[in-house]
Amino acid sequence: MSQVNFDIAALRSFVTGVDLGSFAKAADRVGRSTSAVSAQIRKLEEQTSTPLFRKSGRGLALTDAGEVMLRYARRLIELNDEAASATRGTDLEGWVRLGLQEDFGESLLPGVLGRFARAHPKVRIEARVARNTDLLVRLDAGELDLALAWDDLNLSMRARHAAGASVLLAKPQIGWIGSDALQWDAQAGEPLPLVLFDGPCMLCDIATTALDRAGIPWRVALTSPSLAGLWAAAAAGLGVAVRTHYGLPSTVQMLDAAAYGLPALPTLPLILLRASSTPAPPVEQLATIVLEAVRGYVSEGQAAAA
Questions:
Q1: Which residues contact 80 (CB under 8 A, 6 or more apart)?
Q2: What pLDDT is attached to residue 223?
Q3: β-strands 94-100, 146-150: how paired?
Q4: Any bridge partners for residue 240, and if so which?
Q5: How far is Cα 117 from Cα 114, in angstroms, rounded to an integer?
Q6: CA distance to 147, 174, 206, 207, per residue, from 201 (Å)
Q7: Residue limits of the HTH lysR-type domain (predicted)?
């Protein structure tokens, strides 16, 4: 039997199409025509001898084989790009300071740093996992080169947007997070117990404003300096936390807002911010790896939710 050799360009078009939800958009991203991308997908299906997509309403969804191919395609592309980056950037030196949310600390940071360190062993990385306000302040102060943050639309960040130094990655839904252990009798007029960060928190402000507008009383049941503390309190039933679905531990889940009589919350832009619109080569290399990792993480999360 002859060995099947998948084409990296075809795999890249496949993954990009899945991530963007459109092969027309994927064609723009990879610099090919839509017909060329379609031909690449057909070639992959010929090589695997099975359909990778099935019809789902007006769109397309991955088959079981397509889900398997997606996981392997991401790994193959990552290894390809890592090899290309490593051979081109063996002499790359410098220092990169990266900041990101606790939501992504365990899920993304080890893989991102490991991949970058293998490709660029002479570049030193300083990583900081912190709250959104702290990340933005440090970025403005020149203490970070890159930050994966929630966009709170303050003026300094708007100026960065205008300079083209930010990339929008996703707009996840903010939600009410709790567990089956939650004891709250809304019918009896009990205020909703909240577990919140012990300082300024944009998501908490959004949630409490929504509760006030809906006329729902609330109280602070617990404050914590860390996200782990919020998850522990929510899992124990002490109250409800407010966050997106990123990084949720298995001990808690998104609550059905309507079932609990809670107001729906808005989406929140997740962005990668650079301290400069013309970053140094090591910063740009790390930004590329972070973007790829986050897009893959977001895409997988969306597929699991569906």
A1: 8
A2: 94
A3: parallel
A4: 194
A5: 5
A6: 17, 13, 9, 10
A7: 6-63
What pLDDT was estimated at residue 4? Answer: 86
At 173, phi and psi to the nearest 5? -80, 135
pLDDT means per 10 residues, the chain with 306 residues, are 84 89 86 90 91 81 91 87 68 85 82 84 89 87 90 54 68 93 87 91 91 95 92 96 91 94 93 85 87 77 51
Sign of CA dihedral 146, 106, 114, 21: negative
Nearest to 144 by CA among 198, 97, 100, 92: 97
Q: Given this model, what pLDDT does residue 154 score?
A: 53
- Domains in the chain (CATH in brackets) are 8-87 (1.10.10.10), 93-170+269-304 (3.40.190.10), 174-260 (3.40.190.10)
Cα–Cα distance, 118 to 216 (Å, whole number) = 52
Q: What is the pTM of this model?
A: 0.68
Alpha-carbon torsion (241, 246, 247, 252), positive or negative: positive
Sign of CA dihedral 174, 179, 182, 187: positive
pLDDT on residue 281: 86
Identify the pLDDT of residue 14: 92
Q: How far apart are CA 222 and CA 228, in angstroms?
A: 13
The burial class, CB within 10 Å (0-12 / 13-18 / 19+), for 298 is: middle
Which DSSP helix (H) or strand (E) runs through 86? helix 64-88
Q: Residue 98: beta bridge partners?
A: 127, 146
User: In angstroms, rounded to a whole number, what is the distance separating the alpha carbons of residues 239 and 243?
Assistant: 13
Distance CA 205, CA 114 (A): 35
